[in-house]
Amino acid sequence: MNDEFEQQLKKDLERVAAPDGFADRVMRRVQTGESARLHIMPRRMLHVWQAVAAVALIGVLLGSGLAVRQRQERQRAEVLQRQFDLAMQITQRTLSGVGQRISEAGVKQDGEEQ
């Protein structure tokens, strides 16, 4: 069975001579520019696809730019929020200290008056 398979494979893979005039036809096509007909897609369709690709690229660039800007704004807002929270803590401590001093001053004054 293997011998038959190998013989058939050798027969199928034998070198076959090109038809008469094949090389001349290929060279004429190359010289006359007929190879342009071998393009998969006509040139006008190629331009359409290029335009579609350009629009898609612009959309991706604008979208990524917008995403970067939104991320930066969110980071700025977080920094501002942390700064505000710290300022409020400092203000609360300061006012608490002032309130405590006022209370102590009031107690001393009440104590002195009696």
Description:
Helix content is 82%, strand content 0%. It has 114 residues and is mainly α. It has one domain. It is elongated. The N and C termini lie far apart (125 Å).
Strand and helix layout:
Layout: H1 2-12, H2 22-32, H3 43-113
Strand composition percent: under 5%
Largest sheet: none
Query: Which ranges are low-confidence, i.e. pLDDT below 50, for 5 or more consecutive residues?
Result: none
The rounded distance between the terminal residues' Cα atoms is: 125 Å
Mean pLDDT reading: 84
Report the total helices: 3
Mass-distribution shape:
elongated
SS-based class: mainly alpha
β-strand number = 0
Q: Tell me the helix content.
A: over 70%
User: Secondary-structure element sequence?
Assistant: HHH
What is the quaternary state of this protein?
Answer: single chain
Query: Over the alpha carbons, how many angstroms does the gyration radius reach?
Result: 43 Å
Tell me the domain tally: 1
Give a quick summary of the entry:
It contains three helices and no strands. It is mostly helical and 114 residues long. It has one domain.
Essential attributes:
single chain, 114 residues, mainly alpha
